[in-house]
Amino acid sequence: MAKGYVYLIVVVDWASRKVLASKVAITLEAAHAVDVLQEAFNRYGKPEIVNTDQGSQFTAHEFIQAIKDQGCKISMDGKGAWRDNIFVERLWKTVKYERVYLYAYDSVNEARLSIMQYLAWYNQSRPHSSLGKMTPDEAYGAMLPAVPLAA
Question: What GO terms in the biological process aspect are recorded for it (predicted)?
Answer without folding.
Answer: DNA integration
